[in-house]
Amino acid sequence: MSSTGEAPGKVILVGEHAVVYGLPAIAVPVWEARATATVSPRAQGAGCIICAHDIEREIELSRADDREPLALVARLVLRELSMDPDPDLQIDVRSQIPIASGMGSGAAVGAAIVRALYMHAGVVPADSVGSALVYRSEEVHHGTPSGIDNTVVAYGKPVWFVRGKAPEVFTPPCSFTLVIADSGVPSSTLAMVAGVRSRHDASPNEYNAWFGEIAEIVANARRAMETGNLHELGELFNLNQDLLELIGVSTPDLERLVEAARVAGASGAKLSGGGGGGNIIALVADYASERVANALIESGAKRVIVTLVGARG
Ligand code: PMV
User: Fold this and answer.
1) What's the pTM value of the predicted model, to 2 decimals?
2) Best of 10, 11, 14, 16 to mutate for ligand 1, by most ligand atoms within 8 A of CB?
């Protein structure tokens, strides 16, 4: 008998970059792009193998070292469950989440493996346990990850996140639709964060004032989500985009997409994540999602995902 676990991708809704300076950010799950892991038995003595189909890799657990995040997360779960460290199991991993696009694909694959192995053992993992296990495997790739990715994918709910504090998971009373568009321009979050750091250090007063404004936007965005005021949430996206432009992480490509989304009827749009490339997100009324998605493709987006936030859990 096989057991399957799944986990969503994620996007940062508001507060990116300012979050590095100790201010809050909100991230939300993207269930329309998800990772799944299926655990099935193998012949006796065959050991454990992880088949990562999207990257065409087969990882033999007994031979992989801990720098391999998929092997590490499986090992951590087996230890947590006091199971054989090399059980006769095959773990098939598949993901619809674009890799290295700021959508948390690594964390989601890890969370799917955690869930599938727990299901196989007949145990339902607490979200907090799944989140902590994924965090430890994320450290391999990201050094000291902020913790936002593992939290949002393990809980599968919107997260209010402040660095160094326990994340708060919250559930908006009504769902809303986001269109996520990939500019197709690769960008390094690390380089974008370093650029902001050097400009911040050269003009700390100016940057701290902008970060303060972003923090206010994030607090208002949470209130708008909790009261279902989607018109206000859209306006807050636009204000956050203005500030992201001021801190120098937007680009003409991203701004063309943001503008196209607004013209096509989005109530607000902004870049999401590190900037310099990567994704934009647009808040849309349900009926406008197709129009906005088409406009984004016509304006050069390489891929568009439409997601309903808050519809689940
Ligand atoms: O591109 P993403 O989704 O990994 O987000 C980066 C968010 C930043 O605030 C720019 C960096 C960070 O570590 O929080």
Assistant:
1) 0.93
2) 16
